[in-house]
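stage 2 :: seqdesign
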């Protein structure tokens, strides 16, 4: 009895020494000498002997001490989600009965030691995931004879993984994903792992072909080789694995046809997307009665979709977009399964959309744009409250939109452009609808007064339809609206004189209608408006001075009946085509392409003669001073430099040109210099990048440069530096940006000139 108590006391002392070594973390505050260590939740005992330690997320910040192996019967150690530092703990070599070791989600560094096989020969589970191990995985890891699970995911390995892993005859799980290995093919020895159920090597820098013998891995249930550079054909044997349940081969360089013989009838998820696969979809896919997700998008598949795929009873997600598929879509999609996501866009499909897509009331999205579909939208879509997105633009669809679709309670996106749809706009829509695109259809009738209830709408694009009537003031009540495109319709009458709530509006295009009356001054009070197009109408009167207060990057008032002088803010080259074909408009800036203002016009404001005389005297003196200063500083004729502004400016090109001195230079890049230029006496600065000095651009490059500058000028985003203006001559281009402190801007400007493209891809 005394000996037994001594042994218990000894084990308690060992555990308390561990606690002390780990700086007494609060998570172990209940480890006290007066309590029975076998009752502590982190400890498991067998006949009083400690066999298990599991301290998960216990805020351990110290290394593992050698004393842990003084617990002679310890077989299970789980210390995941701590902050354990240092190299691989070789002290664990002394835990001779260890069967389970989980050190994942810690701060371990360095390489896995070459003698890692000195760990207990009983070890079955080894998890070192989410640490910072580097170098190679040593070949000796293949000498742990009892190993069943090996998890090395998400480390910093930059060497190789050994073929000797194929010697682990008892291995059932092998996870090597998310490591930056040196480029390496899958060793053929891996196909000897007859008990392997899960092989995950996602994003592991794999190259070469998938081994042909992979069909011999009869126990394989889950295979993930996605996001690599694998090439060649998919081995025929892969689809003969009768236990295969999950197969992910997406985002590789696989080519050739999909094997047509499919006996892997347990498949639930099949993702072959983002490859270069050709040929047809196997008819045998229609036998995969357990399949919930099929992803074949971004390939070069052709032919028709087997009708039987539409009848799969478990199918939830189908993604076939961006292929060369043709023929009619299987009519039973959604009829026999709880279909949620239907994505077949960018193909050559003809005929109608399947009418049962929402038969089971769980459909989230219909993505079928850029096909050759005809007929009307299925009536089922009008009774489908689960719908969140419908994109059927760029087809040949016709008829009216089902009433219930407009008002679907969860619908956020409805894109119907470039079809033959007809009918009138509804008085109400679903409260979640934020994006509505109806362009290039045959919608007619008035914009309903009930549009004021479309409160969630942010984008409304209805260009090139047959909408008629006046623009109701209720349209201006939508508080979230950022884009309104109503150009190319039959709208008439004056614009609403009062704007209720367009505080977020950035883009307004009402061109090519029959609108008349004066341009409302209230448009000039919209704080975020950057794009305004009222061209091709019958507006008359003067341009309101308030419009000049806007920070417009694009303005088009051409082809109207406007009169008077162009506001001074627009008298520069940036607005060279903004006022054409308004016989009554004038400006003394030749680049605007309209009539010069006569002296009679300039003095038509009915000011008192004394005030005019006083102002004229002051202006004359100021003009002489400014002229002499400009000649002295700039020494350049006005015709040499062209200023294109994208914001309201408090400086001229003279301020900029005079500041391009060596003292103001803050950097130099591959295409020019960067300057920090003062623009006034209050301490404000701008950053100027001078590019292509003394190099004349050909016409194509010049157009590309101006187009890119216009895009930059329209951007409004807190994380993107603001382009104020462009100043150009035949030999130089100056880009003028707002200046950012802490050198962030000059570093940004000195980088290579990249084309930034935003590709929006909907995958629900």
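stage 2 :: out
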């Amino acid at each position: 009895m005394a000996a037994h108590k001594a042994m218990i006391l000894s084990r308690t002392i060992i555990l308390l020494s561990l606690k002390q070594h780990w700086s007494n973390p609060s998570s172990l505050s209940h480890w006290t000498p007066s309590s029975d260590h076998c009752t502590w939740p982190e400890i498991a005992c067998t006949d009083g002997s400690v066999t298990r330690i599991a301290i998960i997320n216990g805020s351990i910040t110290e290394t593992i001490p050698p004393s842990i192996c003084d617990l002679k019967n310890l077989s299970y150690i789980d210390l995941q989600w701590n902050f354990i530092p240092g190299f691989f703990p070789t002290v664990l070599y002394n835990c001779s009965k260890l069967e389970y070791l989980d050190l994942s989600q810690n701060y371990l560094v360095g390489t896995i030691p070459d003698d890692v096989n000195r760990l207990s020969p009983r070890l079955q589970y080894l998890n070192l995931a989410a640490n910072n191990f580097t170098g190679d995985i040593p070949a000796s890891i293949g000498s742990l004879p009892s190993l069943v699970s090996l998890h090395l995911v998400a480390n910093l390995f930059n060497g190789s993984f050994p073929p000797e892993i194929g010697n682990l005859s008892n291995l059932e799980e092998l996870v090597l994903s998310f490591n930056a290995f040196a480029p390496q093919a899958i060793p053929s020895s891996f196909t000897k792992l007859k008990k392997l159920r899960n092989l995950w090597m996602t994003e592991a820098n794999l190259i070469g072909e998938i081994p042909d013998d992979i069909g011999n891995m009869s126990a394989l249930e889950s295979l993930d080789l996605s996001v690599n550079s694998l090439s060649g054909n998919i081995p025929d044997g892969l689809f003969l694995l009768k236990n295969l349940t999950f197969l992910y081969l997406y985002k590789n360089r696989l080519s050739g046809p999909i094997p047509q013989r499919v006996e892997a009838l347990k498949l639930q998820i099949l993702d072959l997307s983002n490859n270069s696969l050709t040929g047809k979809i196997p008819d045998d896919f229609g036998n995969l009665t357990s399949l919930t997700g099929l992803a074949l998008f971004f390939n070069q598949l052709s032919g028709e979709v087997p009708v039987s795929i539409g009848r799969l009873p478990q199918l939830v997600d189908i993604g076939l977009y961006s292929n060369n598929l043709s023929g009619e879509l299987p009519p039973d999609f959604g009829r026999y399964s709880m279909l949620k996501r239907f994505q077949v866009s960018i193909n050559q499909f003809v005929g109608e959309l399947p009418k049962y897509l929402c038969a089971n009331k769980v459909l989230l999205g219909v993505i079928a744009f850029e096909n050759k579909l005809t007929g009307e939208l299925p009536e089922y879509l009008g009774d489908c409250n689960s719908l969140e997105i419908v994109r059927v633009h760029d087809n040949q669809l016709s008829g009216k939109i089902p009433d219930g679709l407009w008002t679907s309670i969860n619908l956020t996106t409805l894109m119907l452009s470039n079809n033959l749809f007809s009918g009138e706009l509804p008085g109400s829509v679903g409260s979640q609808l934020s994006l509505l695109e109806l362009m290039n259809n045959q919608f007619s009738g008035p914009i309903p007064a009930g549009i004021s209830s479309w409160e969630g709408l942010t984008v409304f694009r209805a260009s090139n339809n047959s909408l008629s009537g006046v623009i109701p003031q209720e349209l201006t009540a939508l508080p979230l609206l950022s884009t309104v495109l109503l150009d190319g319709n039959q709208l008439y009458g004056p614009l609403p004189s009062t704007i209720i709530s367009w505080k977020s509006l950035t883009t307004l295009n009402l061109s090519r209608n029959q609108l008349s009356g004066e341009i409302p001054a209230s448009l000039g009070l919209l704080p975020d408006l950057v794009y305004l197009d009222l061209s091709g109408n019958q507006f008359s009167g003067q341009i309101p001075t308030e419009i000049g207060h806007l920070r417009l990057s694009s303005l088009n008032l051409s082809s109207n009946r406007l009169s008077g002088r162009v506001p001074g803010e627009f008298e520069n080259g940036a607005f060279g085509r903004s006022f054409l074909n308004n016989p009554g408009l004038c400006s003394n800036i030749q680049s605007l392409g309209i009539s010069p203002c006569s002296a009679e016009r300039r003095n038509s404001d009915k000011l008192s003669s004394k005030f005019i005389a006083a102002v004229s005297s002051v202006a004359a003196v100021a003009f002489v001073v400014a002229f002499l200063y400009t000649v002295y500083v700039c020494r350049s004729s006005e015709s040499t430099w062209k200023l294109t502004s994208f914001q309201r400016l408090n400086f001229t090109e003279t301020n900029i040109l005079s500041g391009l001195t060596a003292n103001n230079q803050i950097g130099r890049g591959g295409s020019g210099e960067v300057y920090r230029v003062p623009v006034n006496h209050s301490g404000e600065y701008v950053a100027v990048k001078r590019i292509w000095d003394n190099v004349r651009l050909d016409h194509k490059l010049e157009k590309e440069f101006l187009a890119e500058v216009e895009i930059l000028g329209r951007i409004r985003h807190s994380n993107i530096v603001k382009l104020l203006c462009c100043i150009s001559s035949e030999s130089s281009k100056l880009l003028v940006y707002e200046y950012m402190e802490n050198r962030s801007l000059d570093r940004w400007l000195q980088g290579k000139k990249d084309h930034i493209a935003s590709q929006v891809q909907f995958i629900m």
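stage 3 :: structure notes
- The first strand starts at residue 43 and ends at 46.
- The helical segments are 2-21, 403-406, 599-602, 609-634, 653-658, 699-714, 744-750.
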